[in-house]
Amino acid sequence: MKIGIVCYPTYGGSGVVATELGKALAEEGHQVHFITYDQPSRLALLSGNIFYHKVDIRTYPLFKYPPYELALASKMVNVVKCEKLDLLHVHYAIPHASSAYMAKQILKTEGIQIPVVTTLHGTDITLVGKDPSYEPVVTFSINESDGVTAVSDSLRQQTYNTFGVKKAIDVIPNFIDLERFKKQKKDHFKTAICPNCEKLVVHTSNFRKVKRIDDVIKVFAQIRKKIDTKLLLVGEGPERNPMEELVKELNLSNDVRFLGEIEAIEEVLSVADLFIMPSETESFGLAALEAMACEVPVISSNAGGLVELNVNGVTGFMSDVGDVDDMAKNALIILDDNNLPTFKENALKRAKEFELSNILPLYEEVYHKAIEKI
Ligand code: GMT
């Protein structure tokens, strides 16, 4: 197949899933055309089957807000025509699904039928999409897609509960490349961070409020009172400065490090003992899956799709959003040397269920159904 993939090329989970999916499809022999405003961060263009088409967003003094949706729709039209694409797969409903709808209508006037598959990732539904300023367009574009997927059953349900969506939604969970995400020997790194053999707790995210990084720090403060531990906070975003202030306030500066964005995240996870994800909402929790693949157990909230990933008492523990006391109590159970090896083993075993090769055929099936339908 010749597949056009549209996504946000940033560090967010939806962009990562779209990019890794595209790379895997290319390896399977499909021709994959990324249509984005920047080169996706995890994309290496070293495959003959991968192409990148940049969306040019023209500014003009009259525009307070440059019309990205129109530039994207126009680019989709051109790429579908020039490259003779069989299908467009858009990741994140806003505005990708509505731009794809417009592209599809334009192409129809020229006698070209292009099926559109939309993948819902989370905040496009749970936070931004349900806002009245976007909701009618989101509902319409989902209903007009030829195939719709959501990354967890929780997100599928939320979509039905929040929007007037009538379309069947296939659940296709996030996936993991176990060749890349595996525990590696990085003893020198561990010694540098934990010179006295302290335990290591890690959190990675894009530092938005929804991630509740203050809870990570509060849980860590409680753990540290009982055992020698260090905390690594990986990522960048609006919450970074306030969180640096909180660390100072709680007198934790000697034990907490902010690492910023790191490309080889699997190297950091390789030396971690515990991953904390206390999110307010989380449609799947790709970062937690990446940790589990590197044999790191997870303390998480029980929000959204996290209950479909983290197995309570087995791969880690789940608590109600904001219940930092419960999270800290459970973290101490995991970090106990008598328990840690079993939790690590279980985490890896669970991650294996989301191996890329198990998930890829599910997307291919959705593509075939969408193409047959049109
Ligand atoms: O939350 C993020 O870090 C980014 C966000 C996005 O929209 O790119 O991630 C969402 O999509 C990921 C991939 O499907 C999911 O694993 C994340 O759980 C989801 N984030 C939220 O629901 C908050």
Give a description of the structure.
The chain is of the alpha/beta class and 374 residues long. The chain folds into 2 domains: 190 residues, Glycogen Phosphorylase B (Rossmann fold, 3-Layer(aba) Sandwich); 166 residues, Rossmann fold (3-Layer(aba) Sandwich), CATH 3.40.50.2000. The chain has a 7-stranded parallel β-sheet with strand order 3-2-1-4-5-6-7, sandwiched between helices. Strand 6, helix 6 and strand 7 form a beta-alpha-beta unit. Helix 3 crosses helix 5 and helix 11 crosses helix 13. It is elongated and about 70 Å long. It starts with a strand and ends with a helix. The protein binds ligand GMT. The site of ligand GMT has 19 residues, from helix 1. GO terms for molecular function: glycosyltransferase activity. It comes from Bernardetia litoralis (strain ATCC 23117 / DSM 6794 / NBRC 15988 / NCIMB 1366 / Fx l1 / Sio-4) (Flexibacter litoralis). This is N-acetyl-alpha-D-glucosaminyl L-malate synthase BshA. InterPro entries: Glyco_trans_1, Glyco_trans_4-like_N, Glycosyltransferase_grp1, Thiol_BshA.
